[in-house]
């Protein structure tokens, strides 16, 4: 296609020859086509296009970066109307214009065409980028410098290949029904977990890399230990007190003892209790709502989404339903609120091992267990990447609980001896932050006439899969885009290749006064950010704080960075998320916005 008429174009250089060659080759050549209104020229009966190419777009003459961004924005929106679902849009730009790290040298962001952010506004993600090689195209000549019949430099030019993104999801309240204490109960899933509950990553028909890692570990360990899989259904909800666990890190679920709350009751009252409450709530039958127990109300049963599989492992021991020397294995998703960091996950798949050994043999057993885990992981990683993996056992006294995947759920009866299983890609011998994939602890039990030491070990299967397959962002494990799972056919582990390159990031600040006399709940602050953005906030940094000397009031200022790993995320969408975030923290944390 061409923007000008055939008469205007035919008199320029070799255009007439190119038109003739195209038509002789069977191509349809269309003139006077506005690239920002493609649907006006291509009727529905012609079908949609599999590929749209736009080589070196430009508004003409001395148009600056802003006008050319606008041209690209309108072009991408136009392309979205005539492109197949699996189609591609190819845009070639001169070196530096795109504003991505692929440009060498790279322009400052404000002085580039910001092509990835512009395309995101129309629902496209950058899936590939490679050099534009004019010499490989027979008869190609670049022309049109400042709307003249002059050539322009294409050295270092890049071809950007865009594909459609899956849409941003708007999550509705979700009711989950489970079997609990021999009866069926329903509860509202915390909104931040709606897209992560009951995903079935570990089920038999799954080819998710998390399951493949689990199956490989289980098969290898069964060669070295008597092994028993605990394959009965473990309830998502748990009841009872956990020593050492901060209430603000738990997703509380409240069920009425008289009846299961209705969907409407859940939506109106329970959602706040699930997401934001750090105190006891119950159902007020007169007001048909959920209120603070401290305000006076009949106390309901309290449950929470399991933060660890430890209570189920302990139940096995307390019931005596285990064989000394046998490695019992449990696995499933666990949940906890946490700060937003690259390796902190509000849900991950835990693989939990428990084994009872004679007192005095625990250290050698731990070392044997770790050695077998090492061997299995070495084999997996070397098969996938061809590189060696360094795994070591370190005393974990220097690690914070959050760095150890929130293993604070270990009861106080467990010993203070604690080891961290670390994986490193390099051979420096240092355990870099985020490379701790598991923890091992011990506890002493007297069972009959013998005193046994129970060894507990827990592994984060999600983090293991990430390290083995080269997945840099934990959110990618939960993507609904089939381009992720298609890279692991039949559960085969491979190095992951991202289908969304150089995603744009957007920064917003928020400042507010903290309520007088109250401790600011930073975990709840981060949880609200996760909820309103659908996990699009990748970083929250405290950039300023001060306290008024006259009143004692405290002000905080945080910087939020928004970025998606798998979806198109536009500036407008982020602005709407930021406005909603301000509203939510004002309502639920009772801060005064500045």
Determine the CATH superfamily of the largest domain: Bira Bifunctional Protein, Domain 2
> What's the end-to-end separation, in Å?
53 Å
Rg, Å, rounded = 29 Å
Q: Please tally the β strands and state the result.
A: 22
Overall geometry: globular
Amount of helix: 10-25%
Topology:
Elements: H1 6-10, H2 15-24, E1 49-55, H3 65-80, E2 83-93, H4 115-120, E3 124-131, E4 158-164, E5 175-180, E6 183-188, H5 209-222, E7 227-229, E8 237-238, E9 252-255, H6 263-276, E10 281-284, E11 289-292, E12 301-305, H7 310-318, E13 327-335, E14 347-358, H8 362-385, E15 390-395, E16 418-424, E17 436-447, E18 450-460, H9 461-469, H10 482-485, E19 506-513, H11 522-533, E20 537-547, E21 554-562, H12 571-588, E22 592-593
Helix pairs in contact: 5-8, 5-9, 11-12
GO biological process, one term: translation
Subcellular location: Mitochondrion matrix
Domain FDX-ACB: 501-594
Folded structure, characterized:
The structure is a single chain. With 594 residues, this protein is an alpha+beta fold. The chain has three domains: 131 residues, Rossmann fold, CATH 3.40.50; 275 residues, Bira Bifunctional Protein, Domain 2 (BirA Bifunctional Protein, domain 2); 88 residues, Alpha-Beta Plaits (2-Layer Sandwich). It is 24% helix and 26% strand. It is built from twelve helices and 22 strands. The strands form six sheets. Strands 7-13-14-18-17-16-15 form a seven-stranded mixed β-sheet, with helices on both faces. Strands 1-2-4-3 form a four-stranded mixed β-sheet. A four-stranded antiparallel β-sheet has the order 20-21-19-22. A hairpin with a 4-residue loop joins β10 and β11. The chain is globular. The two termini are 53 Å apart.
């Amino acid at each position: 296609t061409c923007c000008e008429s055939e008469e205007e174009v035919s008199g320029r250089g070799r255009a007439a020859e190119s038109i003739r060659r195209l038509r002789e080759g069977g191509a349809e050549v269309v003139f006077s086509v506005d690239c920002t209104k493609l649907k006006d020229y291509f009727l529905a009966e012609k079908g949609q296009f599999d590929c749209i190419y736009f080589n070196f777009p430009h508004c003409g003459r001395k148009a600056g970066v802003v006008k050319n961004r606008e041209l690209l924005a309108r072009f991408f929106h136009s392309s979205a109307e005539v492109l197949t679902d699996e189609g591609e849009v190819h845009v070639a730009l001169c070196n530096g214009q795109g504003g991505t790290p692929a440009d060498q040298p790279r322009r400052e962001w404000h002085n580039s065409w910001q092509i990835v952010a512009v395309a995101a506004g129309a629902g496209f993600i950058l899936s590939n980028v490679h050099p534009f090689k004019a010499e490989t195209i027979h008869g190609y000549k670049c022309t049109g410098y400042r709307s003249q019949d002059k050539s322009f430099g294409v050295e270092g030019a890049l071809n950007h290949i865009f594909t459609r993104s899956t849409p941003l999801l708007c999550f509705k309240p979700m009711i989950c029904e489970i079997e609990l204490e021999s009866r069926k109960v329903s509860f509202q899933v915390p909104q931040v977990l709606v897209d992560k509950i009951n995903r079935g990553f570990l089920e038999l028909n799954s080819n998710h890399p998390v399951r493949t890692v689990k199956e490989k570990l289980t098969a290898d360990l069964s060669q070295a230990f008597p092994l028993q899989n605990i394959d009965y259904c473990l309830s998502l909800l748990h009841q009872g007190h956990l020593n050492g666990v901060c209430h603000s890190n738990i997703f509380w679920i409240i069920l009425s003892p008289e009846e299961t709350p209705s969907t409407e009751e859940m939506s109106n009252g329970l959602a706040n209790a699930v997401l934001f409450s750090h105190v006891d709530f119950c159902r007020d039958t007169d007001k048909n709502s959920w209120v603070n127990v401290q305000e006076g109300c009949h106390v309901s049963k309290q449950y929470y989404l399991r933060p660890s599989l430890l209570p189920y492992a302990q139940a096995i021991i307390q019931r005596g339903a285990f064989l000394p020397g046998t490695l019992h294995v449990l696995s499933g998703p666990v949940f906890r609120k946490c700060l937003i960091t690259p390796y902190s996950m509000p849900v991950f798949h835990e693989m939990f091992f428990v084994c009872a050994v004679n007192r005095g043999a625990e250290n050698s057993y731990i070392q044997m267990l770790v050695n077998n885990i090492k061997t299995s992981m070495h084999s997996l990683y070397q098969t996938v990447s061809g590189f060696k993996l360094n795994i070591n056992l370190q005393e974990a006294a220097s690690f914070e609980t959050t760095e150890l995947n929130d293993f604070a759920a270990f009861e106080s009866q467990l010993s203070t001896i604690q080891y961290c299983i670390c994986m490193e890609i390099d051979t420096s011998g240092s355990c870099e932050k985020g490379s701790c994939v598991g923890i091992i602890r011990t506890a002493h039990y007297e069972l009959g006439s013998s005193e046994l030491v129970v060894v507990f070990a827990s592994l984060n299967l999600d983090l293991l899969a990430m390290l083995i397959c080269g997945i840099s962002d934990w959110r990618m494990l939960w993507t609904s885009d089939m381009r992720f799972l298609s890279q692991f056919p039949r559960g085969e582990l491979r190095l992951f290749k991202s289908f969304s390159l150089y995603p744009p990031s957007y920064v917003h600040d928020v400042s507010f006064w903290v309520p007088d006399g109250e401790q600011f709940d930073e975990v709840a602050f981060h949880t609200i950010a996760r909820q309103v953005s659908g996990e699009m906030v990748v970083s929250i940094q405290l950039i300023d704080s001060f306290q008024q000397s006259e009143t004692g009031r405290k002000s905080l200022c945080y910087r939020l960075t928004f970025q998606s790993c798998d979806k198109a995320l536009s500036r407008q969408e982020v602005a709407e998320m930021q406005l909603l975030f301000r509203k939510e923290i004002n309502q639920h944390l009772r801060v005064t916005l500045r």
